[in-house]
């Protein structure tokens, strides 16, 4: 699923497989979004309120990890853990002591517990990714391949997704019924669409 701001960037990408089946999330105002947030039950705890894993915040952009984590907590996640660059960990921990902060080398999406009724879980990846860090590509691909719960791909991870392997893994997630949401701004959407075109061209050669 794509944010509606990405839709028009896909125009003209006729070669993209199943392009006519792409789903676009409708735009919503702040009040509408607030109504979607569940109110915790009186007996709720941090696990029943939701487990959010964020794979974010390179050494160059620790602030992105801080803001993404704060947004997750404000949206109601009861247990929020952040996997970030080692150099970003002190900044993120100091930002909110309630966060569980780990080096992203500890991130093992394929070994994460499967989603269970009453214990929602989700992952956000890409906020504050630095394109200069080539190791982040394998981190993203491992997550797209192995993470079973809903996955939101944002920021620098979007550009890393736009290649033959990334598109194949995204299609496999869709075929398996694993919810995936892409949230690019205009520039990221243009780069993602261009990367998709180039990847599809390479696949045809």
Main attributes?
single chain, 205 residues, alpha/beta, six-stranded parallel β-sheet, two-stranded parallel sheet, 7 helices, 8 strands
Describe this structure in words.
- By secondary structure, the protein is an alpha/beta fold.
- Helix content is 37%, strand content 15%.
- The protein is built from seven helices and eight strands, in the order E-E-H-E-H-E-H-E-E-H-E-H-H-E-H.
- It has helices at 30-36, 62-74, 89-95, 135-146, 156-161, 164-175, 186-204, and strands at residues 2-3, 24-25, 51-55, 79-84, 100-103, 121-125, 151-153, 180-182.
- The strands form two sheets. It has a six-stranded parallel beta sheet with strand order 5-4-3-6-7-8, sandwiched between helices. A two-stranded parallel ribbon has the order 1-2.
- The longest helix is centred in the last third of the chain and has 19 residues, at 186-204.
- The two termini are 28 Å apart.
- Mean pLDDT is 85; it is low at 4-21.
